Each structure stands twice: as C-alpha cells, then as structure tokens.
Amino acid sequence: MNPAAILTQLGDKATSGKALPPVDQWHPAHCGEMDLVICADGRWMHEGTPIGRARLVHMLSRVLRREPDGSYCLVTPAEKVTIQVEDRPFLAVDCSRIESDSAPTELGEAEPGQTESGQSEPLPDVWQLVTDQGDVVRLEGETCLTLSETPDGLWLPEVPVRFGLAARLHRNLYYRLLESAETHEQDDGSLTLGFMSGGRFQILGQLAADEVEV
Asked: Which intervals hold domain DUF1285 (predicted)?
C-alpha cells in the first residue's frame, strides 16, 4: 500500500471537517510495514523520496497514532500499517501567549480564580504551541513540556499532542523561548531553564552544577 491509497480507502473520514478521525477507536488487523519514515527534521519520506505534497502529509498525520509497544502506525477502519519515526512525528514551530482575564466579578460564591470574598485573582497566563501539522497545544494541566533524548544524544523539550504522539520543539522556537527563559537553582547547584504556563513551570533545559558559570 502507498500513502495515497490510504487516503482513498478512508474517503471523507480523513478529509472532512476539522474533527480528527477517531483512530483511537479503530482496531483493524495489522497489515505489515510501509516504507515510510518521518525524519527528525519533519520530512516524510516514502521509499527514500520526500513526499512533496503538503496536503497529503497533513492528511496522513491525521490517521497516525502510537501503539502501546511504542511503534507508530497509520490506521484506517480496515487495516493498520507500521511506519518509522526517527525522533518525534511532529515539530512545534510557533507559540503564542494567552493572557489571563482578571476582570472583577460580583460578590458571591467563589469560582475558579476567585477568592471567598469575591475578589478576582489573576488566572495564570497560558502559552500555546502550534505544530507543523496545525495542531494547537495549550500548556496547562497535565499537558506540559518534558525533556527527552534526541537521536543526536541531546536532551530537548517535547510536548504531548494526541493519540500518544508528541512534538519536538523546533530549533528556532526552542531558541526563541530560551531568550526569555527563567532560571531556577536547585539544591544541588544545578539550574533548570524554562517559563511559566498554566501555573506550571515548563522546562526547556538543565545545566549541571559544574556547567554553571560562577
């Protein structure tokens, strides 16, 4: 099977509307492997050749999921094929900050972000990331940046996106966020670098104690 054949099989399930196909609810038979690799730099390669049609890549990304054993599969209601991913299937390429709304509210029962006296408390700002396939990920709650090792042996941030899939921060976005990063000193003298979003510290990197300039 080739990538275009998957979309033909899916019909409008992959292309209609903004809602993602429910690939987490599809449990077809496994039909082997496809010679398709998602490179660490975001390129999709089929049989050694880059897929030049951005729309085809986008549609395929909508039917991608990660299996419990860590493998990556393209899934339709009828079949499932395994593909290879060098690092993470997506790249986070842009970000924006959603400022909190701290407008006062009427006295009464306290609501989230409000004290018992009815005074409004500022809600934490939230940053949202945008992936190379158009996913918007808000850094709040359980969705946060974590560090993981790249194929090059570097420890860089990633963020969960959907269906077990994650996005690695693109180098340009990573350095852009580092420019305004906060540093937190740890008990052992090491430093963590990051920023606040949704009331949680979002980690961008770490410096061991012997790497910290005095």
From this structure: 21-87, 128-201
